[in-house]
Amino acid sequence: MSRALVIFVHGWSVTSTDTYGQLPARLRAESERRGGPALDIHHVYLGQYVSFRDEVRVADIARAFDAALAPVLAEAGGNRRFVCITHSTGGPVLREWVERFFVQPKRLDTCPMSHLVMLAPANFGSALAQLGKTRIASLKSWFQGIEPGQGVLDWLELGSSEANALNLRWIHDYPKLKLTRSANPLFQFVLTGDAIDRKLYDHVNSYTGEPGSDGVVRVSSANLNACHLVLRQPGTREGEALPSARKRLRSLEPVDDARAERTAFRIIPGTAHSGDAMGIMRSVANDDRPHPTVDAILRCLAVRDHATYQALCNEFDAENELHQTPQRRVEMERIPVLPDRAHITDPHAMVIFRLFDQEGARVDDVDLLLTAGPADDPNQLPSGFLRDRQGNRRSGAVCFQFNHAVLAGCEPILRPDGRVARGELIPRPPYGLRLDPRVQERFVETWQAAYTSDMGGLLQWIQPNQTTIIDIHLQRIVRSGVFRLTRSLAARDFRRDELGPAIAGKP
User: Fold this and answer.
1) 435 contacts 368 by C-beta, under 8 angstroms
2) Could you list the residue range(s) of the whole structural domain that residue 422 is in?
3) Tell me, what's the pLDDT at 42?
4) For 244-248, 299-303, 310-314, 484-488, which range has the lowest pLDDT when averaged over its residues?
5) Which of these ranges, 47-56, 233-242, 288-297, 397-406, has the smallest mean pLDDT?
6) Domain annotation covers residue 348
7) Where are the beta strands (DSSP E) in 235-299?
């Protein structure tokens, strides 16, 4: 069997191949030392692409990667395959490349990539992308002589249409492709950290110290083990009285749900997104000292078939569970003179809400409220469950970051000295949601709707370390007063006519 080529692909805003640090050399040395995976250690390629020009989009980079790859594979000769190790935005770039050049044309069996190992990939985006598009960030980029990279940042912004489209295909369509079972398998892995390098923390930007992230990308946003839930409001009926119609339409009905096929996912302890000290890639040194990133990558590259892939998934899941046990979540920050500070790294979950009408158009004039308890009361939500809320102006999606430990409950957590770092967290399920129109009694309107406790609650769909896309389809209620026919030929002013009953809509 021919040895696989090794290609590295960096993330957004990188301007030098120095970003890869000593990881390429270390993998070359480990391959020689251990006699490990069949890698072509003499052909290691460092990718370099432009992400800091506003006109460049992720799809453009994927096309350029394909063009740059062609002569490399031609020179290698035969049916040489390659393994790709990406960092940050490099993960979405390679996934976009697979989608455009092999999945859409239905020629996945010709894909030359055998392993895609993604380090801290922003698969569902990054909370920092929105800040990177601000005027202050643009001014900073201007002073540095580069552009902020608007096209790539559009993809990376949480809830973007581009990221949602790729991830929904991953959830619904990719399981049918049986990527790991084919004669020409493609194995994908996600390795990400959940530690914060306090020396790199930006006190002006709290996202760089956000719990449940590596300082740039959230654990749940990196993970490809995601799900999609669709809720729909019933339609109005011909001749139905408004009071009964409003009451009947209050319930949101689950009409579709899907979970992505299992993907190997590992939280690398003690690693952050970047930096020489803790970066998941940059902290790797070319020496004999063990490093969790190197160990995890070599385990990924050793996978050769579906059985070994599933076995590694099981191992990673068990290691993640051990890593996130309550007593391992506390981190003590040493502060000179002042008392030590305790940081707790709970499992978090990200939920992307998208609101549409029955025709698929965006709905923007409603308020989304989360509820808890048998009474479906927003005031019963446990304190501290909501870590962040960010809206995407381009797509209309709203992204929430939840502390899953608060929602699900957690035993007390102790500091290393035995003192209580945090008391027991008491959950308040079932959790639901309610949609309230901001303006009522209009010619075209939306009505209140809810996913309530008697439907089982949302926690069954919201899993730790994962992203859930929840699409809600509301009825766009059109009142009969929008258009009337009259037999009277006398002129009359109809500006103050009554709204009229609701016109029957499609379910």
Assistant:
1) yes
2) 229-258+344-480
3) 47
4) 244-248
5) 47-56
6) yes
7) 253-259, 264-268
Q: Are residues 280 and 412 in the same domain?
A: no
DSSP 215: S
- Give long-range contacts, CB 8 A cutoff, 24+ apart: 139-147: 141/52, 146/13, 146/15, 146/52, 147/52, 147/53, 147/54
Which pLDDT value is given to residue 196? 92
In this structure, is residue 217 part of a structural domain? yes
Instruction: Give the Cβ contact number of residue 423 at 10 Å.
Output: 10
pLDDT band at 369 (very low <50, low <70, confident <90, very high): very high
The count of residues in the chain is 507
Q: Is 160 found in the same domain as 40?
A: yes
Q: Is 29 exposed, middle or buried (0-12, 13-18, 19+ CB in 10 A)?
A: middle
Strand partners, 371: 432
The total number of structural domains that make up the chain: 2
Residue-level pLDDT at 146: 43
Taking alpha carbons only, the member of 389, 348, 387 closest to residue 367 is 389
3-state secondary structure 155-166: HHECCCHHHHHH
138 has pLDDT over 50:
no
Contact yes or no for 165/70 (Cβ under 8 A) = no
Q: 369 with 396, same domain?
A: yes
The radius of gyration of the chain's CA atoms, rounded to the nearest angstrom, is 26
Residue 52 has pLDDT above 70, yes or no: no
DSSP for residue 455: G
- The CA distance from 148 to 307, in Å, is 43
Residue 344: which residues within 8 A CB-CB, separation 6 or more?
A: 211, 329, 330, 331, 413, 421, 422
| Distance from the Cα of residue 93 to its chain's centroid | 14
Bridge partners (DSSP) listed for residue 213: 218
pLDDT tens sequence across 240-270: 777 888 888 899 999 999 999 999 999 999 9
Query: 76 and 130 share a domain?
Result: yes
Q: What is the pLDDT of residue 400?
A: 97
Mean per-residue pLDDT over the chain, rounded: 89
In this structure, are 254 and 264 located in the same domain?
no
- Same-domain pairing of 251 and 395: yes
